[in-house]
Amino acid sequence: MKLKILGCNSATPAYGRHPTAQVVNIKEQLFLVDCGEGAQMQMQEFGVKRNRMNHIFISHLHGDHFFGLIGFLNSLALYGREKEMHIYGPKDLKAIIEIQLMHELSYTLHFHFLDFKNEQIIYDSESVEVRSFPVHHSIETCGFLFTEKERARVLLPEECRHYEIPKYFYKRLTYGEDYERKNGDIIKNGWLTKEGKKPSRYAYTADTAPHKMYSDIIKKADLLYHEATYEEVHLDKAIDRKHSTAKQAARVAKDAEVKQLLIGHYSSRYKELDTLFNEAKSIFANTILAVEGEEIEV
Amino acid sequence: MKLKILGCNSATPAYGRHPTAQVVNIKEQLFLVDCGEGAQMQMQEFGVKRNRMNHIFISHLHGDHFFGLIGFLNSLALYGREKEMHIYGPKDLKAIIEIQLMHELSYTLHFHFLDFKNEQIIYDSESVEVRSFPVHHSIETCGFLFTEKERARVLLPEECRHYEIPKYFYKRLTYGEDYERKNGDIIKNGWLTKEGKKPSRYAYTADTAPHKMYSDIIKKADLLYHEATYEEVHLDKAIDRKHSTAKQAARVAKDAEVKQLLIGHYSSRYKELDTLFNEAKSIFANTILAVEGEEIEV
Description:
2 domains; alpha/beta; 22% helix; Metallo-beta-lactamase, Chain A; 7-stranded mixed β-sheet; homodimer
């Protein structure tokens, strides 16, 4: 799983930073997470393959998280897209998009409405499961948890040859099955395969004040994105607007025992991000800053 | 009058070029003409002072001409704007904007609806008059004509001193009045002032196929912006989509006897613009290309 940052700023664009948008890449299937204004330009800039994108997740209806969606959807149609596109977001998003479409799109849009009360599996495929979960913001907002499916076991070719396993059975070995010879002998799967790489989990908590309501679902994630809109000196603003400071984000990461913390959604008041970075690192060492165009291995 | 290009591409962004947006500057009062996605970022990039902008003109409801408006209006509120903002556009624009505003803005929006049947004076102040006029596109579309008001006459300071004109009368001299001495002697205005710079006219024809319906209003404009979406080899596409080729744009400029032609709204199929430029210049020599960030003296 890889994550590419298209926009890392909050509310308004500033200092060349764009509003929130991210691309999750799971085995070259791309998932768009929020879509602030300019996201489609950023995709061009950073070589994101929009045809590999079939699912878009919109956390809430503050403009800096969805104003770029209509332009992106419109451009896809102008490029002649035919594949269906799935959008997971607040129910009002449907009317917002539809009122702006002057022509019928060349492809079908499917809207899936988020539940802002309960955790929910919103997408489930062979390779990934996506859950939405409510967070604590000034309007109804969901975060998203991307979980790679259990990876297949990895064949040990020499052992397979040694035990003369027929090739047609190799695929079933990767699912963990034992092989049974015609004479009834059992060749244990553990002799023929080893464990695959551990599946990864990416938790995106959107815009939120720190809150225990999402502490379970993000527990021990490989990567946690947590907004860090303000430096600690502006804690009052963070509380007032139901955002977080960098220190609060880091405390969430620490309590959840995640492997790595990614902070973003920087206030436009900050040209330099050093203080945000240092404040977070003082509490949770394995912190990185969201930087547009950068790709993070989860 | 000065014109700054924020976006010069058509339909979808491409090669770093943005969808249509322009800023007309008349004595430091700024007028926004169309507002494609990313216009607010371009304003930041090019140092456009958004507080000097009180009037926004939207030619039609194709997304590449208005998808950036909601983000811009929203950001103005986040920056604490209190001054009223006037928007001139198709009547459906009002609902499109209003459905996307999650909170009340910090300032009042006034919508003024365009007449797509007749030429209309839509804004009139001491320094400028703006007219809308219908053009020939696939949906209802208006162009805009910006006309500077008659400039004041310019005082000749030595002559004024020579004739001992009292200072309180200087302002009236700039309006063209003669000065009458107490003894009844008349000092002719022409002895005391010279003509001011001729007022300028900028005609923006938005998206359109060439058509006589707007030939009168753009006649002898100082600057004509005419879309030139396609090279001549794609004339069929231009006709089909009610756009123009560069040659057609140049013929319009020639027939209208304008001083200068500015072409833009380039199709995303063109990385290089040389052919568009050369095709237009072959018919109308005083052609310039719209380039983002560049400012043009009208």
